[in-house]
Every structure is written in structure tokens, then in C-alpha cells.
Amino acid sequence: YLESCYHQPCYLASVSPIVSKIIETRYGRKATVLSNGIDTDFYYPGKKNNDSTILLVGNPFLDFKGFDVAIRALCMVKAAGYDFKVTWVCQTKPSIDELPFPIEYIVGAPQAQLAEAYRISDVFMFTSWYEGFGMPPLEAMASGVPVVTTACGGIQSYVRPGFNALVAEPGDANALASSLLYL
Fold first, then answer.
1. Which of 48, 54, 77, 125 is the most buried (most CB within 10 A)?
2. Element housing 46 (H / E)
3. In what order do the strands lie in the sheet with 53-57?
């Protein structure tokens, strides 16, 4: 079905250069890049609680989101002697064994509550293995939150390592923990 869709005589658009390259490689078609944007009237900086909150956003049951790597990195930060708490905005609450740090789950949050979670968090961590674009790091940036992320594909169209985010290779819990410790 996809093969026939991508061979129709119409213009194609993609959300990022990496998706455009995939379409060209797989289907032999050029796709114009029309990147997502952020509503900065909705996502904007706010007053921080300054309570060392690390924010995670996403579905814990999608393996490519790398939340197992996030938990390993967070455990390393705790083992290094740092106190923090985690807020995880997710679609479904994960079943995770006892963790050495407090974690609050916000399940099924409306967009306004998600935007507020960004505003009051101290750091946002994004650990995907791959993404076509990846909105959460951009939402965090618009909310004035430092971002620790993996170089997971589409976000590389807007992430500048060391400038607007600290970046690790996907799956590298040690580098993610080092970035968190740096912040």
C-alpha cells in the first residue's frame, strides 16, 4: 500500500531531512521538508520550582523511546550522590520496580498540563533510539528547559550539541548521565 501511495503523481512533504532521505532512498521520490513548529503562546518559559525535577515525556511501552536507557542514566546520577525527582508525563503508567529516586507519573495529561510540566521542570531528558522529528525536545526548549537528548534522527534538524542541548548517542546511558550531572 505504501509503495503505491509514494508513487502517485503528487508532491510529497516530509517533517525532517532524515524522513525526506528515507522516502527518496526507499521510494525514489523527492520530498520537500516542512518542519513542525511550536506555538510559543502555548509553550513558553515559566517560574521554575528549582527542586531538581527531571522531566520525561512519552509512552513507556514504545521500546524505541529508550526509557530503559533513561532509567539506567537516572540511577547512575543517583548513585553519584545527587538528589532529584522525576516527573514522567505518559499515556499509560509503566510498571517499574522500586527506584532509588522519587517519580511522579502524570497519566493522560491534557496538552495544557504537559506545557505546565515543561515550565516547572529543571531538565528535560529525551532518550529515543530514532525519531522522524521529535517534538518534545523542541517543546522543552520553547519552555526554557535545558535538554539532554540522544542524536535520534529528525531532532538533528534543530538540535545543536552544546548550544541548545546536550547530546548523546542513542542507548548511551553513561553519556546521558554525564550530561545530567553536568547540568
1. 125
2. none
3. 103-107, 85-90, 53-57, 123-126, 147-150, 166-168
Orientation angle between helical segments 135-142 and 111-120, nearest 10 degrees: 60
pLDDT of residue 101: 97
Average pLDDT estimate for 39-47: 95
The distance from CA 10 to its chain's CA centroid, rounded to whole angstroms, is 32
> Three-class SS string for 148-159?
EEECCEHHHHCC
Using an 8 Å Cβ cutoff, are 114 and 89 in contact?
yes
Four-CA torsion 103, 108, 111, 113, nearest 10 degrees: -40
pTM: 0.92
Q: Mean pLDDT of all residues in the chain?
A: 94
Residue 89 CB burial class (10 angstroms; 0-12, 13-18, ≥19): buried
Q: Calculate the alpha carbon distances from 141 to 85, 125, 182 in Å.
A: 20, 11, 18
The residue type of 143 is S
107 beta partners: 90
Asked if residue 174 lies in contact with residue 158, where contact means CB atoms within 8 angstroms, the answer is no
Q: Which three cell numbers stand for residue 96?
A: 517499574
